[in-house]
Amino acid sequence: MRTKYLKTGMMSILVCVIVFSLIWWILTDGNIHSWWIGVPAVVLAVWVSIRLGLPVQMNGYAILKFIPFFFMRSLLGGIDVARRAYHPMLPIAPAFIEYPLRIPPGLPRVLMANIASLLPGTLSAGINQDILTVHVLDCRNDIYPELAEVEQHVARIFVMGLQASEGGQ
Fold it and tell me: Are residues 115 and 159 in the same domain?
């Protein structure tokens, strides 16, 4: 039993190190010279995570499958915003939409809201109970299927099922 706990704990630490290192790398645009501050920052972030004792079960395979999705959506989001900004007619129809969340409260919802901001033309504006409010650049595009796809990825990462929503989505 102790061996299983030790393996799970080490895996959690490894996942934290990888995630915090990836975040640092993204924030510094991969600047190798930033790591003299980044290494202590990552160590501190991992230590704080362990001290807070966030009881999170994560699926490493789901994280690996999520990485290409994350980078592709980030790239498409950047291209979409640049295209709209440089288009002579500025093709936007901004609006706020409400997405009924099916993922349980806590860290998974926070991750879902942050990732939703990477979808083309979106920005998470807030979470109120079971509703994620998203600002969209063009309300004529149906963003709900993409939000549902993000939510499914997050649910797989955190090894949890999705609750049934009242709206039937």
Answer: yes
Residues 123 and 101 in one domain: yes
CA–CA dist 130, 46 (Å, integer): 29
* One domain, residues 108 and 158: yes
Question: Using H for helix, E for strand and C for coil, what is the string for the chain?
Answer: CHHHHHHHHHHHHHHHHHHHHHHHHHHCCCCHHHHHHHHHHHHHHHHHHHHHCCCCCCCHHHHHHHHHHHHHHHHHHHHHHHHHHHCCCCCCECEEEEEECCCCCCHHHHHHHHHHCCCCCEEEEEEECCEEEEEECECCCCCHHHHHHHHHHHHHHCCCCCCCCCCCC
Strand partners, 121: none
Range of the domain at 122: 59-169
Q: How far apart are the first and last CA of the chain?
A: 40
- Same domain flag for 20 and 39: yes
Enter the pTM of the model. 0.68
* Position 9 confidence tier, pLDDT thresholds 50, 70, 90: low
Instruction: Quick: pLDDT tens for 28-69.
Output: 888 889 999 999 999 998 888 877 766 567 787 888 898 898
The answer to whether residues 80 and 117 belong to one domain is yes
